[in-house]
Every structure is written in C-alpha cells, then in structure tokens.
Q: What sequence folds into this?
C-alpha cells in the first residue's frame, strides 16, 4: 500500500502543475504581433489613448510622468520605441528613444537614441546604457514589467512584483517630450507584445529623480 500511496501523491502534484497558465498575467492587455523585422515603418500608439496608463500632471495640467505595463513574448530582442510624433520615420528632427530588451541572442539590454532618415536608415545614434540581461526573454513565458517614463526622458522598467528596476536610465531631453507615442518591432524572430495592460494593484517605482511614486489601480 505504501508504494501506491506514494504514486498517488506524485500524480496529484503533477496534475496541479499541468493546469498552471503562464498567460494569465496578460489578462486585460492589448496585443501587437511583430514579424516584419526591424527596418519597417511599424505603427505607433499614443500613450494618452491607453485605458490603463497612469498619468501624473503638474500644476499646468501637463503630463510629467506616465506609467504603463507591458509584456513581451519572444526568443530574443524585444524592441520598444518612444517618440513625440506619430510618424517619425521621415522626420530627422524627431528623436527616437529605443529600448532593446535582451537583444544580442538574449544576452544584453540597451537604451539608445537616434533619428530616422527613413525606416531603414538611422542617424545620430547615441548609446545611453548597455548591460547584461542574463536571458530575460522566453518564447514560452511572457516577460511582464511596468515602464515609467518622465517628460524629460527618464525611463525605469520594473518586473512584476519587484521593487528594483532591472533597467533604468536618466536622460534629460533637450526638448521635453510632448504627447509620447510608443511602437514595437522585432529583430530576427517574431515577437508578441502585450500593451496597455492593467497596472498592478499597488506597486512602488523609482524613476530618474529617485522619488518614489505609489501606483494604485
């Protein structure tokens, strides 16, 4: 009887693990599929149109800080682009801030800025940060995180449930950002982006000026 009892416990434990759904964390998100590559004129979305974005305003009703939640599902190279214009590809005066999540075969993050001459040509590339990512991305489990963006260009990314940013950069734009737009693209393998996701119930984030912001949704 003892061997039978032992097998029964093992089977129950295994059955519980089978029913776990790694995609529950994407509930309530919108989805964008990117499989056309890096050098394409992909769409940009206005953060002011996001239903789940948290905006903080100054005394002049100008957005100073925006917080959104995003997920990425891909083998490597998640690419997020931020800009102040909806159609930046043929406007060399429109600065792009690009966040590369676990590029270089899932080994490194990078934040850089540049301008587009056209979708396949960039100029003025400046590397703001380059750091190890230790294989953050997976094609089986989405990487979920909160992104906090200030009007002056500071950016901080926090994984769900973590208080310390896994990627942060303090970047003072020459001209404050107005009406931030966000876009997504892939590199050598298809990528799925989950965006405008519901914010977590209560979470603290630090961005740029080292002031804590309490997020309640």
A:
């Amino acid at each position: 009887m003892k061997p039978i009892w032992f097998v029964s416990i093992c089977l129950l434990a295994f059955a519980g693990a089978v029913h776990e759904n790694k995609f529950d964390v994407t509930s309530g998100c919108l989805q964008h599929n990117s499989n056309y590559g890096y050098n394409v004129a992909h769409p940009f979305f206005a953060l002011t149109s996001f239903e789940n974005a948290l905006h903080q305003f100054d005394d002049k009703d100008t957005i100073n800080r925006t917080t959104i939640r995003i997920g990425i599902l891909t083998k490597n190279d998640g690419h997020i682009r931020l800009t102040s214009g909806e159609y930046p590809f043929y406007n060399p005066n429109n600065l792009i801030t690009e966040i590369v999540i676990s590029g270089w075969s899932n080994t490194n993050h990078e934040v850089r800025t540049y301008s587009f001459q056209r979708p396949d040509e960039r100029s003025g590339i400046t590397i703001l940060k380059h750091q190890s990512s230790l294989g953050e991305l997976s094609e089986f489990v989405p990487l979920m995180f909160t992104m906090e963006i200030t009007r002056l260009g500071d950016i901080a990314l926090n994984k769900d449930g973590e208080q310390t940013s896994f990627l942060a950069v303090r970047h003072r734009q020459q001209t404050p950002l107005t009406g931030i737009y966000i876009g997504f693209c892939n590199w050598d393998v298809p990528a799925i982006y989950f965006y405008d996701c519901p914010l977590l119930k209560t979470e603290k984030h630090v961005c740029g000026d080292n002031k804590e912001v309490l997020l309640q949704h």
Observations:
- Residues 27-216 form a domain with the Jelly Rolls fold (CATH 2.60.120.200).
- The first strand starts at residue 30 and ends at 34.
- Helices lie at 2-18, 103-106.
